Amino acid sequence: MSHNGASEQQRQILTTHARMRMTGRRISETALSAVIDYGRVVYVRGAKIYVIGRKEVTTFLRKGVKLADFEGIHVVCNPDGVVLTTYRNHNFRGLRPRDRRLRRRQNL
């Protein structure tokens, strides 16, 4: 059962770029599906990014779902759910929302 409620159709739509990146980075269709089904969702600069980190691995292991092999995989989608690219990165700092107040103060 999917945690994020992503439909089967959404998982099948990949851009040519995404398919090339998956092949080059050795990210399987199984990994892609697992990240979309069980990863956290972050909205960054108009993109919808699914990510599996340590928290997801720990949480879903208690429920009997093994995600350790997919830890650090990011799947970037457009707002319609089309997969644009995918990559591995264990550093999630780029996914944090930027502090808008800080930016406003710098502009003054």
**Topology, number of strands:** 4
Number of helices: 5
Principal-axes geometry comes out as globular
Mean pLDDT across every amino acid position = 83
Structural class: alpha+beta
Topology:
Layout: H1 8-12, H2 16-24, H3 29-38, E1 40-44, E2 47-51, H4 54-62, E3 73-77, E4 83-88, H5 100-107
Antiparallel strand pairs: 1-2, 2-3, 3-4
Question: Explain this structure to me?
Answer:
- The structure is a single chain.
- This protein is an alpha+beta fold and 108 residues long.
- The chain has one domain.
- The protein has helices at residues 8-12, 16-24, 29-38, 54-62, 100-107, and strands spanning 40-44, 47-51, 73-77, 83-88.
- The longest helix is centred in the first third of the chain and has 10 residues, at 29-38.
- The radius of gyration is 15 Å and the shape is globular.
- Mean pLDDT is 83; it is low at 7-11.
Concise synopsis of the structure shown:
With 108 residues, this protein is an alpha+beta fold. It has helices at residues 8-12, 16-24, 29-38, 54-62, 100-107; strands at residues 40-44, 47-51, 73-77, 83-88.
Could you list some keywords that capture this structure?
four-stranded antiparallel beta sheet, 5 helices, 108 residues, alpha+beta
